[in-house]
Amino acid sequence: MNATEGSNFYIPMSNATGVVRSPHEYPQYYLAEPWVFSLITIYMFFLILIGIPVNLFTLCVTVQHKNLRTPIYYILVNMAMADLLVIVVSFPFAMHAAMHGYFVHGMVGCNFEGFFTVHATQISVWSLVVLAVERAMVSSQPSMDIRFRRRFVIKGIAFSWLMAFSCSLPPLFEWSRYIPEGLQCSCGVDFYTLKPDIFNESYINYMFAVHLVVPLTIIILCFSRLLCVFNNEELDKIERDANCVAVTLTLGFFMYWLPYASIGWHIFTNQGSAFSPFAMTLTSFFAKSSVLFSPLICVCLDKQLRRGMIITLCLGKNPFPDDMGASKTEASSGSSSSVAPA
Ligand SMILES: *C/C=C(C)/C=C\C=C(C)\C=C\C1=C(C)CCCC1(C)C
Ligand SMILES: *[C@@H]1O[C@H](CO)[C@@H](O)[C@H](O)[C@H]1NC(C)=O
Ligand SMILES: *[C@@H]1O[C@H](CO)[C@@H](O)[C@H](O)[C@H]1NC(C)=O
User: Fold this and answer.
1) What angle do CA 297, 301, 303 make, to 5 degrees?
2) pLDDT digits (tens, 9 = 90+) for 108-167
3) Which of 21, 22, 31 to mutate to test the pocket of ligand 2 (most atoms within 8 A of CB)?
């Protein structure tokens, strides 16, 4: 036996020595030294401390500046909201659990933490899909009506929430379940057992197929379309820059999540094999840092957003006197202008 299983936990360590205890009741200091748990606590604290202002600021700037009311920023707002949701609602659970060395909040806390993490992640996944489709549409048809694009993206955002619910809700209703993982201070879905009574195998297959492979395929198809029109002369600079932001954002997001997804898939397809709880925790907490880097990527790459931020930071005074006029006309020509930046 490579693991110790209980009714609501799965610890990747044999109980031959008799030290293994339920992660809902006892500290797990036999899985890793206490300082590792302290490090995780500090890391979570740092993520919460930096993540809230960075995402909140992105959100405020995007809502405040009229010239940022174009489809790509709708998607950014949706992702920033998802990030804030997970930072405010589930990160404190993980931090508090790491502080105590085990999942102190019981099954209710575990469901709560797992649900919001999966939900927010899924919102980002499907937002990126909508963004990729929108980019491909605009790039192949630059004259497309801005109102049509806006309606498309708003429907897409509603769709991203629906898809997210269809991934995050089932484990709460006995199709799979949320369970502590890695060093047992955060919760994810059950990759570890087949549990026929909750149809776990079918859920994990469904999750990977519908909520990872399908979105990735759509994104790859759309981006290959973007490559074809990369040098299209009809496409203005703003649209090309938006394509760049979209591609970088997507690459960044999956760079954070694919290590975790691969370990999960590996564990699921090799039931009962030995794996390191530390590796699981490392990839899952690495994935959590994606909340911080998506707004940062945008700020680094997106000139308009950065300018909006500087104006907001200067309390509304525009420190760019040379393009003062330009920004005025942009704002006054209204958000329905078809030449509005994307
Ligand atoms: C810190 C807590 C974590 C990482 C909780 C669990 C996350 C999942 C079960 C994520 C699953 C996945 C989603 C939502 C989307 C991308 C693919 C995926 C299967 C890794
Ligand atoms: C591990 O073994 C010890 C000693 O046999 C036992 O007291 C404990 O309950 C076991 N742990 C689990 C989680 O079953
Ligand atoms: C334990 O893990 C090893 C290596 O991963 C594997 O070969 C073995 O079959 C596993 N044992 C059980 C009981 O599954």
Assistant:
1) 130
2) 999 999 999 999 999 999 999 999 999 999 988 888 888 899 999 999 999 999 999 999
3) 21
Residue nearest to ligand 2 atom 2, measured at CA: 18
Best of 103, 257, 267 to mutate for ligand 1, by most ligand atoms within 8 A of CB?
Answer: 257
Burial of 45 from C-beta contacts in 10 A (0-12 / 13-18 / 19+): middle
pLDDT at 235 over 80: no
Gap from CA of 21 to ligand 2 centroid (Å): 6
140: closest CA among 224, 69, 248, 245?
A: 224
Burial tier of 83 (Cβ tally within 10 Å: 0-12, 13-18, 19+): buried
The angle at the Cα of 169, spanning 164 to 172, to the nearest 5 degrees, equals 155
Ligand nearest 205 Cα, by number?
A: 1
Question: How many Å apart are CA 282 and CA 288, to the nearest integer?
Answer: 10
| pTM (global) more than 0.85 | yes
Q: What is the position in ligand 1's atom list of the atom closest to the CA of 208?
A: 19
CA of 97 to the centre of ligand 2 (A): 22
Superfamily (CATH H level) for 24-325: Rhodopsin 7-helix transmembrane proteins (1.20.1070.10)
The per-residue b/e assignment along 148-180, b for 16 or more CB within 10 angstroms, e otherwise, is: ebbebbeebbeebbebbeebbebbeeeebbbbb
- Determine whether the annotation assigns residue 271 to a binding site: yes
**In the chain, domain spans:** 24-325
